[in-house]
Amino acid sequence: MKRNTWQREAVREALSSTEGFISAQGLHLSLHETGSPIGLATVYRALADLAAEGDADSLQSPEGESLYRACTTGHHHHLICRNCGLTVEIEADEVEQWARAAAASHGFTQAQHVVDVFGLCAGCTAKAAGAE
Ligand SMILES: [Zn+2]
Ligand SMILES: [Zn+2]
Ligand SMILES: [Zn+2]
């Protein structure tokens, strides 16, 4: 059963117009700025639903916060700038092979993995270097 349809659509739209990953609080704030009366708890729930159905990617920031992004479908990985939030979607055949092999060597089947790389993007690296 699907509840809160307009809220979900509002969250989905806000998410697709956002570049990079965003937290539920961040998305709630930007929805609020556009005059939406949607509540924070509803944003949390809608994001979790979208992620569960594969309509959004979710990941944990190094600080342990859940972040979301409307992503291309299919399995992929992310490079994420921890300063500005720039996100690059990457494919990593080496990781796929390694994950399969590592799982198989321990007798695991149906292995899944989440690999996201946090760092400083080129722009932020240059700015950080310039500031020194
Ligand atoms: Zn993605
Ligand atoms: Zn950056
Ligand atoms: Zn992978």
UniProtKB/TrEMBL annotation:
It comes from the Bacteria. Keywords: Cytoplasm, DNA-binding, Iron, Metal-binding, Repressor, Transcription, Transcription regulation, Zinc. GO terms for cellular component: cytosol. Binds 1 Mn(2+) or Fe(2+) ion per subunit. One of its GO terms (molecular function) is transcription cis-regulatory region binding. Fe cation binds at residues 75, 96, 113. Transmembrane segments: none annotated. The keyword Chaperone does not apply. It is found in: Cytoplasm. One of its GO terms (biological process) is negative regulation of DNA-templated transcription. Zn(2+) binds at residues 81, 84, 121, 124. CDD domains: Fur_like. The keyword Transcription applies. Its cofactor is Mn(2+); Fe(2+); Zn(2+). Pfam families: FUR. Homodimer. Belongs to the Fur family. This is Fur family ferric uptake transcriptional regulator. It comes from Leifsonia shinshuensis.
